[in-house]
Amino acid sequence: MKLKKLQSKECNEMSSDKKQIYIVDDDESVCRALKCLLMTYGFKVRTFLSAEKFFNAVPNSVHGSLILDIHMPGLDGWKALKMIIKSGSNRPVIIISADRNSDMIKQVLKTGAVGYFQKPINDQDLVDLINKTYYKEINNGKR
Fold first, then answer.
1. CATH number of the CATH domain containing 52
2. Residue 143 domain-assigned?
3. pLDDT by residue (tens digit) across 3-30?
4. Which strand ranges, in their side-by-side order, compose the sheet holding 20-24?
5. Which of 13, 61, 108, 130 is 20 to 30 A (C-alpha) from 90?
């Protein structure tokens, strides 16, 4: 997995015309590693260490996919996902977690997440899903 290698690297910001990805995880090293990984694929990435900080900084009307950790202190990813769905947002949400509970995974997907990845995350599978949801969003005229 490339994430381990990328955790120690610094990443430069990409131009603003790239696909926007938001990462919410209370583990700063996970945020940093995912940011570096996704920026190497040309994504524009912003990270947040809590769901509260994400909601305060990014309005629902702003486009971009969200990678969301399910287990966090305060407003956890499960509640945040429900809030996003309830708001009517079309934002694609990908859940990440070390949790391997199959019932929880099914419930998250049933609620409206477009994908679920268990940590450690397969880099290429994550990038493929982000691209798939991005192009689906464009083709449906939502961008």
1. 3.40.50.2300
2. no
3. 544 444 455 543 445 799 999 999 999 9
4. 44-48, 20-24, 65-69, 93-97, 115-118
5. 13
What DSSP string runs through 81-98?
HHHHHHTT----EEEEES
User: Is the residue at 132 inside a domain?
Assistant: yes
Instruction: Copy the structure tokens of residue 57.
Output: 């900084």
pLDDT digits (tens, 9 = 90+) for 102-139: 898 999 999 999 999 999 999 999 999 999 987 666 56
pTM of the complete model: 0.84
Determine, yes or no, domain membership for 81.
yes
DSSP codes of every residue in 15-77: PTTSPEEEEE-S-HHHHHHHHHHHHHTT-EEEEESSHHHHHHHS-TTS--EEEEES--SSS-H
